[in-house]
Design brief:
With 563 residues, this protein is of the alpha+beta class. Among the domains are: 330-388, no CATH class; 411-494 and 501-558, Alpha-Beta Plaits. It is built from 21 helices and 5 strands. The protein has helices spanning 2-21, 33-42, 48-56, 58-61, 81-96, 109-112, 127-133, 140-153, 171-174, 207-235, 312-336, 351-354, 356-361, 363-388, 392-409, 424-436, 458-471, 489-493, 529-537, 542-550, 553-558; strands at 411-418, 440-445, 450-456, 505-513, 521-525. It has a 5-stranded mixed sheet with strand order 4-1-3-2-5, with helices on both faces. A hairpin with a 4-residue loop joins β2 (440-445) and β3. Residues 17-78, 94-123 are annotated as: Disordered. Residues 179-390 form the Pre-mRNA-splicing factor domain.
């Protein structure tokens, strides 16, 4: 009963507060106590759950102190309308003067609901207006479009005015007080000078006559050199007389070079300081003369693409995979009946396992048969290996094919200078290896200089250089057993080397050439330099002889390659 009394007291208090906010009735009368009792009678009675809750709490309700009844509507304890408006005004003032970090109550549902959708004139949704309200990510394209719109919106009066070019420097610009950044030491140019018209220049009289005289003098000089060379060749002293360009006297250089003459007024280098660069615009142009590019001779050769080199472990794996595939194919054919299965491979180790009862009956006969089969298998294996090998003719043909393929890639030349090479042992090694490597060239034997010229592919030349510079012992000269056709007994009996002298071989020059000069490898012996040089002149390689003869052994030894 106490809880019900508390509920009734609270209800009465709430009704009193609501009565203050209601507009006054026209007759000004307050609701009577009878009307309140009638409203209470119209409410439904409490449910069974509420009554049970009241019964459970009867014991605890005895300890609760009774709450005094709220004051009536007419007392001063309740809030009137004036005080409520004053509290609202104070709250608004506090919110207006509150700092930015002050907590503000959350917005109402009506404040957070989405705005109404825009409609067009026909009453349908305006999709274009909706798309304009959607925020877009700024990109380079959108910024450029916005910048273009902004520039279009700028009136014509706001556009930049073109720069004005002054013919003279303004006084304000050169005044140090008004322009503290002006440097009087610098040459100030206001407007660029226009290019002057190229002057009409006539050919000076005698210009082409001088050019023709120079050409005639040059031709006469070449003719004189050729006549001197012919006379020297007839006399047999070609290498002793120097007829190079350094010996022939030439005209002194001109006082002014032809490319500097247009820039000098008096045709003298003393007038260089008086040259005005601004007046040379007709001679100095913006055009640059580029020479015709020439392709180098080595770029035409295509690079040889080699197969991938595998390691030993990878090669074993590849072989194992190939053998497994072959064995699988063979088993499939046997399973299909295409080929007969192999006979069992009987050995001494598996004799009892394969031939059980047969071996017990006659072991001696079975063992002899098994040994015979083992020997037959060994012979077949060796025969198959021999058949897979190349014959000497096939091996030689394979090597020759490789040499010819090497010659197609490039042509190289190697020139060697030997102190003494007339010994039969040395001659045999030089000639035989040149023939085996498919090299062409010539050997010139002369008491003063012995040279070996060989031509061939890069690989063959590399092997031949290794032979000449490392493998051959040039001091191992035993007494010859048989004489060659062009040798005499005097050559054999006379000592080739002096006492304490070493026979040497040096590489004079090695490099690529465009075409070969020789068709085969030959051996020639000469007593005079004239005959040796004439022989090399037939093949247009006399320059090799000149270089080998003019270079000392000390210089050649200092520049020998490491092989």
């Amino acid at each position: 009963m106490l809880i019900q009394a508390l509920i009734d007291a609270k209800r009465a208090e709430i009704m009193a507060k609501l009565a203050k906010f209601k507009p006054p009735q026209p007759n000004g009368s307050q609701p009577t106590q009878q009307q309140q009792q009638q409203q209470q009678q119209q409410r439904p009675p409490p449910t069974s759950s509420r009554s049970s809750l009241v019964q459970k709490n009867r014991i605890s309700s005895k300890k609760v102190t009774p709450i005094p009844a709220p004051p009536s509507a007419g007392t001063g304890g309740s809030l009137n309308l004036v005080e409520l408006q004053r509290h609202i005004a104070e709250a608004k003032t506090r919110l207006a003067h509150a700092p930015p970090g002050t907590h503000v109550r959350p917005a109402r549902t009506s404040d957070t609901k989405p705005p109404a959708l825009p409609l067009d004139d026909s009453g349908q949704f305006d999709l274009k207006a909706m798309m304009d309200k959607i925020p877009r990510r700024e990109t380079a394209n959108t910024k450029a479009l916005a910048r273009a719109k902004q520039q279009k919106s700028i009136p014509a009066a706001a556009e930049k005015k073109p720069l004005k070019l002054y013919d003279e420097v303004p006084a304000d610009y050169t005044d140090p007080q008004k322009n503290p950044y002006f440097d009087p030491n610098m040459d100030v140019k206001i407007a660029p000078k226009s290019r002057r018209a190229r002057q009409l220049k006539f050919v000076q009289p005698g210009k082409y006559v001088d050019i023709a005289n120079q050409e005639r003098a040059k031709a006469q000089l070449e003719k004189m050199k050729q006549a001197i060379a012919e006379s020297v060749k007839k006399a047999g002293m070609q290498t002793e007389l120097d007829v190079s360009d350094k010996v022939i006297k030439r005209e002194p250089p001109p006082p002014v070079e032809w490319w500097d003459a247009p820039f000098l007024a008096n045709k003298s280098y003393e007038d260089v300081d008086q040259v005005n660069v601004d007046q040379l615009d007709t001679l100095v142009t913006m055009y640059v003369h580029h020479p015709v590019p020439i392709q180098p001779p080595g770029e035409g050769n295509t690079a040889i693409v080699r197969s991938l080199m595998l390691t030993k472990k990878e090669r074993k794996k590849m072989r194992r995979q190939r053998r497994a595939e072959a064995l699988k194919d063979k088993r499939d054919k046997i399973r299909l009946g295409l080929i007969e299965p192999d006979a069992p491979k009987v050995k001494i180790s598996n004799l009892m396992k394969v031939l059980g009862e047969e071996q017990i009956q006659d072991p001696t006969k079975v063992e002899a048969r098994v040994r015979k089969e083992m020997e037959l298998r060994q012979k077949m294996h060796e025969k198959a290996n021999e058949q897979r090998k190349l014959s000497p003719e096939e091996r030689r043909a394979k090597i020759m094919a490789k040499m010819k393929e090497d010659q197609k890639s490039a042509n190289e030349v190697a020139v060697f200078k030997i102190k003494h090479c007339s010994h039969p042992k040395l001659r045999f090694k030089i000639e035989k290896n040149a023939q085996q490597y498919e090299l062409t060239g010539i050997v010139i034997v002369h008491p003063k200089c012995n040279i070996v010229i060989v031509e061939g592919g890069p690989k063959a030349i590399k092997l031949y250089k290794r032979l000449m510079l490392r493998r051959i012992d040039w001091n191992d000269l035993p007494a010859p057993k048989n004489l060659q056709a062009d040798e005499t007994q005097m050559d054999v009996d006379s000592p080739i080397l002096k006492e304490g002298e070493d026979n040497t071989c040096y590489l004079v020059w090695s490099g690529p050439v465009k075409n070969k000069s020789f068709k085969k490898f030959t051996w020639r012996s000469f007593e005079s330099e004239k005959m040796a040089r004439e022989e090399l002149g037939k093949w247009n390689v006399e320059n090799y002889w000149d270089v080998a003869l003019s270079t000392s052994d000390e210089d050649l030894q200092a520049r020998q390659p490491v092989i």
